[in-house]
Amino acid sequence: MGVRTACPYCGVGCGVRAAPDGRALAVMGDAEHPANLGRLCSKGTALAKTVGLEGRLLHPMIGTRRVSWNEATQRVAGKFAETIARHGPDSVAFYVSGQVLTEDYYAANKLMKGFIGSGNIDTNSRLCMASAVIAHKLAFGADLVPGCYEDLDLADLVVFSGHNAAWTHPVLYRRMEAARARGQRHVVIDPRRTDTAEAADLHLALAPQSDVRLWNGLLADLIRRGAVDRGYIAAHVAGFADVEAELAQADQSPAAVAADCGVPIADLETFFRLFGETPRTVSLFSMGANQSAQGVAKGSAILNVHLATGRIGKPGACPFSITGQPNAMGGRETGGMATTLAGHMDFDDASRARVQRFWGSPTIAPTAGLKAIDMFDAVADGRIKAIWIMATNPAVSLPNASRIRAALAACPFVVASDCMAETDTLSFAHVKLPALAWGEKDGTVTNSERRISRQRRLFDPPGEARADWKIIADVAAAMGFGDGFGWRSPAQVFREWARLTAYENAGRVLNLGPMATITPEAYEALEPVQWPVTPAGGTARLFTDGRYQTPDGRARMVPVAARGPAEATSGAFPLSLNTGRVRDHWHTMTRTALAPELCRHAPEPYVEMHPADAEPLGIGEGALTRVQTAHGEAIALARLTDRQRPGSVFMPMHWTEAFAPSGRANPLVAPQVDPRSGQPEFKHTPARVRAYRETWRGFFLARGAWTAPSGLELVWRRIPQAGCQLHEFAGRGDARERSAVQKALTRKAGDVLRYEDPAAGSLREAWIDGDRLDRVIFFTTAGALPPREWLVDLFEADALTAADRMALLMGRPSGRAVDASPVVCACRGVRAGRIETAVAAGCATVDAVGEATGGGTSCGSCRPEIARLIAKGEVRHAA
Question: Which of 250, 136, 266, 268 is CA-nearest to residue 189?
Answer without folding.
Answer: 268
